[in-house]
């Protein structure tokens, strides 16, 4: 009973941490406007103060999260623990805190600041690492020099089996690479210069320099490409300074989000003064819709100003294009999704916005994801279904080279929930990919067939009349 209460109170308390982080900014806002005679003057004061308020909230969120994670991690030790015990609750809560931080503190991730952030949380992180939106138990994580952890990697997590929670240290070797949504489970090690592919598990035993793909992991024949080290592993101080300058601009969408919140607040206040609570209640929805539309339009403008039209090709990690692309992604995650796009998944409104970003989206498309990184390289035919959590992965980053290519989904095809299509793939007319599947780089899925797996296998071919056996049985 007490354990159930601890989980319930934790779930209720997590949103309060965000409110606590915002408390200094909210109090400062109150001080700024409490004696202001006119809304116009209040708006001007808030406009000037918005950058400071936004940064203050972000710093407070960092400190609160780091303190909570550090305190909770003291009792997180390797080995088996009862799934209903105190250690399991601590590991679960740390994971929830860091999952929340990937949204609230998104500008910190996939940046020069990420290694410092993970060290603050208690992880051991070497020099020259590149780390994106990783989700670890920090006290169990050891990342060596030059390693690369891509988007949404799960490293040093907990595992549940038969009423027990298993925890174990994880080591990511020197210049090792873990691809998007890769998993390195408890007690596993990614050897030096090894590669774990997209949506793949790290094997229990691997050798240095080997590559692995799939779940369960299987060897992937691959020859590492070598390019100019000054643009991959050994950048000059000038390049580091230039990248830091671009990444500092990630605060801009944070500030714009703060300004939108203040505009909604001032609009509600104006409605309250003019017509009392009934008018304020009626004004809420239009104000929020207007704020969401503004956020999406600002993100579209940022895309075209920062990167223009995406083209297939290659760019090294230490290049202006890559940094500007990450800045555009910050606009998406920090501004557009929280204010507008996230509430319109699977609607025509999302399709219209994706078209404004350069994606080719046909009629009657059901798209329940916004993870279309390089939008100009995406083509969705009429009647396509892209389900929740899917990623149309138009770039890969192994060997610290960003390789971009198209992803095409033909008329009537579907991609199951949490599946990933890699660059250069074409999914044929009426083809179906099952949930949590991986379409490998450069593959063409024949029209009218059904596939599943990671990587996909076991096709169900169409008959001569175009009817699938499974459809006839149904």
- Note the gap between the termini: 46 Å
What low-confidence regions span 5 or more consecutive residues with pLDDT below 50? 466-474
Multimeric organization: single chain
What CATH first level of the largest domain would be assigned?
Mainly Beta
Percentage of residues in strands: 15-25%
Going by CATH, the architecture of the largest domain would be: 3 Solenoid
Structural class: alpha/beta
Helix count, DSSP H or I runs of 4 or more residues: 9
For the report, how would you describe the main beta sheet? 6 strands, mixed
User: Measured on Cα atoms, how large is the radius of gyration?
Assistant: 24 Å
The percentage helix is 40-55%
Return the average pLDDT rounded to an integer: 93
Q: What's the structural domain tally?
A: 3
Shape: globular
Per CATH, the superfamily of the largest domain is: Hexapeptide repeat proteins
